[in-house]
Amino acid sequence: MKTTVWLVAATVGLAGCTTLEIQGHRGARGLAPENTLAAFGKALDAGVDTLELDVGVTKDGWVVVTHDQALNPDITRGPDGKYLEGKAGPAIKDLTFVELQQYDVGRIKPGTEYAKRYPDQQAIDGTRIPTLVDVMQLVRDRAHRGVTLNIEIKRDPTKPELTPPARTYVGALITTLYTYSFQQRVTIQSFDWEALEIAKALAPHIPRSYLTAQRKTFDTIEAEKGGSKWTAGYRYADYGSVPKMVRAAGGLIWSPNYNDLDEAKVKEAKELHLVVMPWTVNDPEVAKKLKAWGVDGVITDRPDLIRASMK
């Protein structure tokens, strides 16, 4: 009980801080290959408060750190040294850990839109997808005792066949956290609120962050339709605002696309005692504006730039 109270108090207490919490998105994707030990090392060098990362589960049950449900051809080369072809490579859930380690994720494919977005990312050939245990050990080895992890479950309720069953997926993550005694240093986040419901049932003391997006290309709220597969039965039509949906779901942390925010929405969220952690903020001027509105932190590909701008 004491642990639960401490965690919730620590999370909610962010709302009263005058500093901005900086979370390194996929480590520091703007500087090093995403979701790799090199990227997490860069983020630690930049002085992040939290490492933000994504996890999947392999065919043989390893929790690995990767954003995509299937290998991304824009950043993945096979054993032959060639970039994967097509829109997607093999699914993570269909590969054993040993098979997954045959792929190199250390260099962006030249000429891709990804390469244009991250011109400063330093290639590191021979880089492999790490396990979650590798990342936890990195944090421990570097004596960053105050650094926490914000771990995203990459389940798509509109395409559930791409990942293991929700309970298997979430259960593997929580088992790994407990096995390596890291459960008190994490937040679990997801766009899929069903996954967060399962996390709440399995480990109620671990804080949960409710990711949302309301963009033309990706809308997890679907306010005009009244409901969404992403929000575990919590319907916009019933609550009239996203912060109220998050609160009704039992959430204490709301993580929206920063483009979906305005000062009024931040104010509403704060009145509901929500921590507000927008993504993905790479422009220091935008970060300053969001801070002035009252957000508690930002998730960023360039923690170095955001940290420097806050000095």
TrEMBL record:
It is an enzyme of class 3 (hydrolase). Gene3D superfamilies: Phosphatidylinositol (PI) phosphodiesterase. The keyword Hydrolase applies. InterPro entries: GP_PDE_dom (IPR030395), PLC-like_Pdiesterase_TIM-brl (IPR017946). Residues 20-310 form the GP-PDE domain. One of its GO terms (molecular function) is glycerophosphodiester phosphodiesterase activity. Keywords: Hydrolase. GO terms for biological process: lipid metabolic process. Pfam families: GDPD. The keyword Phosphoprotein does not apply. Its EC number is 3.1.4.46. It comes from the Bacteria. CDD domains: GDPD_SpGDE_like (cd08567). PANTHER family: GLYCEROPHOSPHODIESTER PHOSPHODIESTERASE, GLYCEROPHOSPHORYL DIESTER PHOSPHODIESTERASE. This is Glycerophosphodiester phosphodiesterase. It comes from Usitatibacter rugosus.
